């Protein structure tokens, strides 16, 4: 009878029944028994049963114990903290952390903080950070927690991570940063936040990163932001190999030197800047745009008159 009682009681979060099992089997270590690889604590945590989780922890359940189910890669080796984090059980996470759960253990290559970041669980992330979770851990694909929150547009969570030391200069396996993830998603708030914190679009491992989707992502962001008008095409078209096409956008929309400075500072990879500025200077001289000629000269372009 007791063999079936404990796991049913745990699954249902039934504290009274768990108490009866404990009274009868206190010396038999039942809290460490498993049912298809799950301990009673795992089952309580999975169901988000706060009171039952607290009861089991007080009875000696180990918050660091892992699910043992080799036949199922989706759960084999997962910890209680990962289970609670994945399903957003804030109060259960709080109990587990207070009982000494390991904050930086990985499951499927990710820590609980990275899992919480993918879902934007602000309160859970705040708890994990307060308990010393490593902020800049990267998963097997090189993605950090900041990458994930930027990709999903969780600006409030991004601010929390940045306030606790998240780096804007980490790159994933493709050589892209959290700023790339934010621009690709079209999230203006997070993009601005990352730029204000020192992120730059040209801070990438490969100068080719601004091709294709990255250029399009930057274009979408500037469109939404509307801070620099139609100059958005500068970066995208230039890095697709068409500096003169980029200049045509300038011709149609007028030259805003502040916008040009912005594009050069945060958009163009340094290896592209000289080519662009030379083309810009040549066009400016041909069209008697003296202010623009001076701008190019100030940027280091040698003018041939």
UniProtKB/TrEMBL annotation:
ANK repeats lie at residues 36-62, 76-108, 108-140, 141-173, 174-206. The keyword Repeat applies. Keywords: ANK repeat, Repeat. GO terms for molecular function: transcription cis-regulatory region binding. GO terms for biological process: positive regulation of transcription by RNA polymerase II. Signal peptide: none annotated. GO terms for cellular component: nucleus. InterPro entries: Ankyrin-SOCS_Box, Ankyrin_rpt, Ankyrin_rpt-contain_sf. SMART domains: ANK. It comes from the Eukaryota. Gene3D superfamilies: Ankyrin repeat-containing domain (1.25.40.20). PANTHER family: ADA2A-CONTAINING COMPLEX COMPONENT 3, ISOFORM D, ANKYRIN REPEAT PROTEIN. This is Uncharacterized protein. The lineage of its organism: Eukaryota, Sar, Stramenopiles, Oomycota, Saprolegniomycetes.
């Amino acid at each position: 009878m007791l063999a079936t009682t404990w796991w049913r009681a745990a699954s249902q979060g039934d504290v009274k029944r768990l108490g009866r099992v404990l009274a009868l089997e206190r010396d038999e270590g039942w809290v460490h028994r498993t049912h298809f690889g799950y301990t009673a604590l795992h089952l309580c945590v999975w169901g988000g049963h706060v009171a039952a989780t607290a009861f089991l922890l007080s009875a000696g359940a180990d918050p660091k114990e892992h699910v043992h189910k080799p036949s199922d890669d989706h759960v084999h080796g997962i910890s209680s903290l990962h289970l609670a984090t994945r399903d957003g059980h804030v109060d259960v996470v709080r109990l587990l952390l207070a009982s000494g759960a390991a904050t930086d253990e990985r499951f499927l290559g990710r820590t609980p903080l990275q899992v919480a970041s993918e879902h934007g669980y602000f309160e859970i992330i705040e708890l994990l950070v307060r308990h010393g979770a490593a902020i800049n851990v990267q998963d097997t694909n090189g993605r950090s927690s900041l990458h994930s929150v930027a990709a999903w547009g969780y600006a409030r969570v991004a601010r929390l991570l940045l306030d606790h030391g998240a780096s804007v200069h980490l790159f994933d396996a493709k050589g892209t940063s959290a700023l790339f993830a934010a621009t690709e998603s079209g999230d203006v708030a997070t993009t601005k936040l990352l730029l204000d914190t020192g992120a730059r679009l040209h801070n990438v491992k490969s100068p080719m990163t601004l091709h294709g989707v990255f250029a399009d992502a930057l274009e979408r962001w500037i469109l939404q932001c509307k801070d620099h008008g139609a100059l958005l095409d500068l970066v995208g078209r230039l890095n697709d190999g068409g500096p003169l096409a980029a200049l045509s956008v300038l011709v149609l929309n007028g030259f805003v030197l502040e916008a040009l400075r912005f594009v050069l500072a945060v958009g163009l990879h340094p290896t592209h800047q000289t080519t662009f500025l030379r083309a810009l200077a040549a066009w400016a001289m041909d069209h008697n745009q003296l202010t623009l000629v001076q701008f190019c000269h100030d940027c280091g372009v040698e003018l041939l008159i």
